[in-house]
Amino acid sequence: MKWSNLTFFSKALITLLVAGAIGSAVYFLSPGLRVDESKSLDKLDVSDKDVNNVTTSAELPLPEAEASSEVASKPLIRIAGYAWNAQSGIIVANGGSKTTKGSLMEKNGVNLELIRQDWLSELRNQQMKFVEEFDKGNNTPKEGVAAIMIMGDGAPFYISSAQQALDDKYGAGKYQLQVLGAIGISYGEDKVIGPPSWKMNPQSMKGALISTVIGDGDWVVAVNYAFANGLKVNPDPSTYDAEAVNFVAAENDDYIEASKALIKSQTQGYTVPLKEVKGGKLTGKTINKKIDGCATWTPGDKMVFDALNGFTDVVSTREFNNQMPTTVIGLKQFADANKELVANIFKATFLATNQMKQYDSWRKKAAEAAAANFKQENGDYWYTMFKGQQGEKGGISYNMGGSRVFNLADCNQYFGATDGVNRYKAVYDQVSRYLKELNPGGFNQNVKRIVPYEEAVNVSYLKGITNIDAGATYTTDYYKKATSVMASGEWRINFDVGRASVRPEAKDVLEQIYNLLVQAEDSKLELVGHTDNSGTQDANYSLSTARAEAVKSYLIQKGIPASRFQKVDGKGQDEPVADNSTAAGKAKNRRVVITLLK
After folding, report:
1. Which of the residue ranges 266-275, 394-403, 463-472, 483-492 would you say has the lowest mean pLDDT?
2. Phi and psi dihedrals of 420, rounded to 5?
3. What distance in Å separates the CA atoms of residue 54 and residue 527, rounded to the nearest whole number?
4. Are 217 and 223 in contact (CB under 8 A)?
5. Torsion angle defined by CA atoms of residues 24, 29, 34 and 40, in that order, rounded to the nearest 10 degrees
6. What is the pTM (predicted TM-score) of this model?
């Protein structure tokens, strides 16, 4: 293929690959060079309130299979997305891949085509083609896709990298990609799969190699779990650190390939050659490492459980229940020029999702439409996977699937419009921090800046939705006792010596804890304070409890309900984690342990 025939994004990718290959050669042949060091960061925020609203409405007629002739003359709008059950609301609203007779899209004057695309790189390529045509003056381009649907926790990575390409080609600020809204959320479907020991003893993940789409939502699930349990994460997919959780990039940025890589490694002995790193330095050795687990979603999870014994879902978006919305990402300039069209796409979707929440006939129709759109399995498969399914193999139980759709009330609540808790901002900001601090795959060298939430998210178009009941806000009941530990981690929260007052530099850590609590909104909390051995033992019991209470007070002021705190206690100096004879050891012992319970 001629260079002149390639798209801008393809050329950019090739240029990056060539530059990366040259850099990799130098990197590989130079043992002892400093590389990105494995890091242990604070865990992600989780919210106090689950998002699951139902607005009572009469059952509507189901869409027909016949293509719509009523909207055939209208401009065709194309939206691409993964095969992901949390998108089933927009699919059934359309009646299938293309707008059908009697569908809600037809009734709202929308001519829509939905396209399955599992490669993140190709989703971006298609969106870039659309921008190229839009730049030529075509208000509704036929080339490329007007929007894509991906996991919202992957949006900081996607938008920032794609925005870099747009700025380089058209000049900074001429075009912007933005999250325009959310139409669903993963509720267990996206998960880390590994041996049961990772769930029973998270520390056993140390030294593991996990296949995933790096930077995407499933990678975030794994990173959240690692940091929530005090484990370091190796951000460099070309190296291996035995003291950290390691990742290998799935081929073609495809979540299905992440599952296939694990299966191939476990059944055929396939290994990945990785440069050994210790303390942030290359040793000069190459480790041929088997893949120990993967981060993926349906149908990738079923593929693994069908093929392998001894594996389970370690952690999923059922625990981090607010982490992964189904976001619609589009071009701001297109959305501004077509506000009514954008509002009508969301309106039709929200009407359909609210029907799915109430009527089994709509859930079954959505499953059938999803099967046809994805060109995989059948309606029964996607119907059961939407609800979530449990299996057992060799005495080990596991969970597959699990999704929810958003109606308008859910969307408004998720973005903080109704209860003041912006769950998505907590997710977006924390993942942005991961990208900045971890620098996965040299992200910061290839992308000049992470697009901030205020520029990356614009849900103002939803205000154009009329004649639809937004419903009432759902709240979570935290008075039921939680008994199962989801994760437990320690934070270095700086206090004044001998006091329970939080120092200003500790606020950043507390913000990260808050963000984690927003994402794991269904969880309850236990806080246990600890001190070094300065002072008397009795005084330290009181001091450690007061420090745990100070953390609780801070989180309550941020909006975490007091009813989420199941236990607040202090252990004084009784459980040191480091040597109290050194200043560094004392500092490590002055800590607060936070446990998430479900």
Report:
1. 483-492
2. 80, 0
3. 34
4. no
5. 60
6. 0.73
The Cα 365–Cα 351 span in angstroms is: 14
Which sequence spans correspond to the domains of the chain? 7-45+190-316, 77-185+322-464, 485-597
Distance CA 60, CA 596 (A): 41
- Dihedral pair phi/psi, residue 229, rounded to 5°: -115, 20
488 vs 345, which has greater pLDDT? 345
DSSP assignment of 28-89 equals HT-TT-B-PPPB--PPPBB-SS--------PPPPPPPSSBPSSSTTSPPEEEEE-S-GGGHH
Block residue for tokens 């801070």: 554
Residues 101 and 95: their CA atoms lie apart, in Å, by 8
* Contact by Cβ (8 Å): 357, 60: no
* pLDDT at residue 31 is higher than 70: no
Query: Residue 526: in which H helix or E strand, if any?
Result: strand 524-530
Give me the pLDDT at residue 67, please: 97
Average of per-residue pLDDT across 473-494: 57
Provide long-range contacts, Cβ within 8 A and 24+ apart, for 134-137: 134/175, 134/331, 134/333, 134/334, 135/170, 135/175
Q: Is the pLDDT of residue 414 over 90?
A: yes
For the cut 80, the answer to whether the pLDDT of residue 146 exceeds it is: yes
77-185+322-464 is classed CATH 1.10.760.10: no
Helix 155-170 vs helix 120-135: angle between axes, to the nearest 10 degrees? 40
User: Which residues contact residue 482 at a Cβ distance below 8 angstroms, ignoring those fewer than 6 apart?
Assistant: 523, 524, 566, 597, 598
Distance of CA 422 to the CA centre of its chain: 15
Query: pLDDT tens for residues 181-222?
Result: 999 999 999 999 999 999 989 999 999 999 999 988 899 999
Find out whether 293 and 198 touch, Cβ atoms under 8 Å. Answer: yes
Classified as helix, coil or strand, 308 is: coil
- State the number of CA atoms in the 13 A half-sphere of 311 facing the CB: 24
Q: Is 329 helix (H, G, I), strand (E, B) or coil?
A: strand
Rounded-to-integer distance, Cα 440 and Cα 38, Å: 11
What is the structure's pLDDT at 484? Answer: 65
Q: What is the 3-state secondary structure (H, E, C) of 375-441?
A: CCCCHHHHHHHHHCEEEEECCEEEEECCEEECCHHHHHHHCCCCCCCCHHHHHHHHHHHHHHHHCHH
Nearest to 209 by CA among 188, 230, 195: 195
Match domain 485-597 to its CATH number in 3.50.50.60, 3.30.470.20, 3.30.1330.60, 3.40.50.720.
3.30.1330.60
